[in-house]
């Protein structure tokens, strides 16, 4: 395990540089950010002065080298919209986004795990067919569509919950339901499949032959062996929740990182977009390494050479 972690950690700098390279060149395809400062009616000399001030008049390789060195120091430049360092602007919004992501993750596990377990144990029953149909619909429906439907039902018609903003637990309900319902469907399907694969195994028959109760067999044997694919999908869900929150935060005007990134894309505010995508990429890397560690902790048969 130690050698595996060492190899993974040695790969992180290379992946970070690759991510920064993709971010830099991809965003440059959308237009000239200097136009944001001077407006559409600006004179050519004003535009040239702004480009010189921002360092955008340098050759592209020089811009890339400057960006890479500064980004590795945590400096993504000044926001073109707020005229402040980009990374602190996003860091101020992270607690709100993490609040939404954690609430959505907890909700998806509370719904998806029991549904998947019951569906597997009652395979072929009406409950199984209904729950899996609902799971397929939940995964197939766009996140923004789920959010709009919830707003229409609970905010417009029933007037139970606020449709936008943040500050109280009522504001958190609809956004977390939107994200949680989408990912609960994925967790339910993976849980059902994992348990169905574990049920016919020899160790389950042996445990039952020893006279263990069904509850003991389920939690001490089946659940532990079925946990690896569930952990995989949960680990992938964590960064996906942040990514999915980009759309959800826009629908509910949730003042998090996703909302800031969407606004930055519209305004061609490169530093905000770059720092946001970079932080999300680091979250994905950290989650993948943590999932690999959990694999070995849960199943001693797994070894990383």
List the defining traits of the structure above.
MetI-like fold, 12 helices, 0% strand, mainly alpha
Any overview of this molecule?
- This protein has 305 residues and is mostly helical.
- It is 78% helix and 0% strand.
- The termini are close together.
- It has two domains: 2-72, no CATH class; 92-298, MetI-like (MetI-like fold).
- It is flat and about 85 Å long.
Task: Describe the secondary structure blueprint for this structure.
Layout: H1 2-27, H2 34-38, H3 44-54, H4 60-72, H5 86-121, H6 126-140, H7 143-157, H8 169-198, H9 202-209, H10 214-251, H11 257-267, H12 270-298
Helix pairs in contact: 1-4, 1-12, 5-6, 5-8, 5-10, 5-12, 6-8, 7-8, 7-10, 8-10, 9-10, 10-11, 10-12, 11-12
Give a short synopsis of this structure:
The chain is mainly alpha-helical and 305 residues long. The chain folds into 2 domains: 2-72, no CATH class; 92-298, Orthogonal Bundle (MetI-like fold).
- Give the overall silhouette: flat
CATH class of the largest domain: Mainly Alpha
CATH homologous superfamily heading of the largest domain? MetI-like
Helix-residue proportion: over 70%
Extract low-pLDDT stretches.
Answer: none
Briefly note the structural class of the backbone. mainly alpha
Total of DSSP H or I helical runs spanning 4+ residues: 12
What name does CATH use for the topology of the largest domain? Answer: MetI-like fold
Mean pLDDT: 79
How many domains, in number, for the residues? 2
**Series of secondary-structure elements, N-terminal to C-terminal:** HHHHHHHHHHHH
Named at the architecture level, the CATH assignment of the largest domain is Orthogonal Bundle
Distance between the termini: 7 Å
Strand content: under 5%
Largest sheet: none
* Oligomer status: single chain
C-alpha Rg, in Å? Answer: 24 Å
How many distinct beta strands? 0
């Amino acid at each position: 395990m130690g050698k595996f972690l060492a190899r993974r950690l040695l790969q992180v700098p290379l992946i970070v540089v690759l991510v920064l390279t993709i971010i830099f060149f991809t965003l440059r395809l959308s237009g000239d950010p200097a136009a944001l400062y001077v407006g559409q009616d600006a004179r050519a000399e004003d535009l040239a002065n702004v480009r010189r001030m921002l360092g955008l008049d340098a050759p592209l390789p020089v811009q890339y080298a400057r960006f890479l060195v500064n980004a590795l120091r945590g400096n993504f430049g000044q926001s073109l919209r707020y005229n402040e360092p980009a990374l602190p602007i996003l860091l101020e919004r992270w607690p709100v986004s993490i609040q939404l992501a954690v609430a959505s993750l907890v909700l998806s596990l509370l719904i998806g795990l029991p549904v998947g377990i019951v569906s597997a144990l009652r395979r072929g029953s009406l409950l199984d067919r209904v729950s899996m149909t609902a799971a397929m619909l939940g995964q197939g429906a766009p996140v923004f569509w789920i959010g709009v439907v919830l707003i229409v039902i609970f905010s417009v018609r029933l007037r139970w919950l606020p449709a936008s903003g943040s500050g109280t637990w009522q504001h958190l309900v609809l956004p977390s339901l939107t994200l949680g319902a989408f990912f609960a469907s994925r967790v339910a399907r993976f849980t059902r499949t994992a348990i169905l694969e574990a049920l016919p195994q020899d160790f389950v028959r042996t445990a039952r032959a020893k006279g263990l109760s069904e509850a003991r067999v389920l939690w001490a044997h089946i659940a532990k062996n079925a946990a690896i694919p569930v952990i995989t999908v949960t680990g992938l869900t964590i960064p996906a929740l942040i990514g999915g929150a980009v759309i959800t935060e826009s629908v509910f005007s949730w003042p998090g990182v996703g909302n800031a990134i969407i606004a930055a894309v519209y305004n061609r505010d490169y530093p905000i977009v770059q720092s946001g995508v970079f932080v999300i990429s680091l979250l994905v890397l950290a989650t993948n390494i943590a999932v690999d560690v959990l694999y070995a902790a849960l199943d001693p048969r797994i070894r990383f050479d």
